[in-house]
Input
Amino acid sequence: MPIVAARHLDTVFSALGDPVRLAIVENLSTSTSGHAMVNDLAALFPISLQAVSKHIKVLEAAGVVSQGRDGRHRPVSLVQSSISTASDWLDDRTRQLEARYARLDHVLANIHEGTRS
Amino acid sequence: MPIVAARHLDTVFSALGDPVRLAIVENLSTSTSGHAMVNDLAALFPISLQAVSKHIKVLEAAGVVSQGRDGRHRPVSLVQSSISTASDWLDDRTRQLEARYARLDHVLANIHEGTRS
DNA sequence: TTGACATTCAACTGTTTGATTGAATAAGAT
DNA sequence: ATCTTATTCAATCAAACAGTTGAATGTCAA
Output
């Protein structure tokens, strides 16, 4: 079965394709609690709170993070499945590349054997 | 001009964050030869050859593909290290998420033990 | 109720991007 | 030499994007 890319995989990669959003994801993945407030995340970057809020919306639209509700806070946390989906797709690419190299090695080995006979 | 510019992870993700470019990468990874001509890739999409050529340039600038020279052809092939770099980063995120879940399980188990005592 | 805090919405702006068409370059085929 | 093929370069355009400031919403705390 050929492994088919998820329908909106490009949206996930696009969401990760910005230094601020990549840093947000990294921060969330390394935080002990697994979530962070918009305000705390905004403090990490030299841009306005509103700009960070927008970045979070982009990540959320791509399914990379989700936002809950805790009083007047909106805790942001990673959605593991989206990370896994992207990771799996890249792993598939790596495996296919390695498989081709392996086939190439095999062909070269056969050629070598042929020259000896 | 020898390529190899400062390639950052967000640039790689950004390059993958487009359906045409993602399909190009997928096509290259599944092709038997491991490379493809610009013309052949362009035939896969309902956009102009020049647009596809630009997409390839974006992928090349991000270090995701490289282009060789074979007569009047410019064969495009994947650069494994860039795929691996992105894959490794996502794997790290996945591992951190799993580690946190494991710690949470542990905490919950302790709480449960506490209620029994 | 008033005020502070956390966050979003709305409007605006400059930059980047994805696409187009037409012209240019380069190399194989006739 | 000329023609055809493969690909890129250049100019252009509309749409999307990342950022800003200012106003609005909702919630806690006095």
About this structure: The two ends of chain A are 38 Å apart (CA to CA). Residues 18, 20, 47-48, 50-51, 54-55, 58, 71-73 of chain A lie near DNA strand D (CB under 10 Å from a C1'). The CA atoms of residues 1 and 92 of chain A lie 12 Å apart.
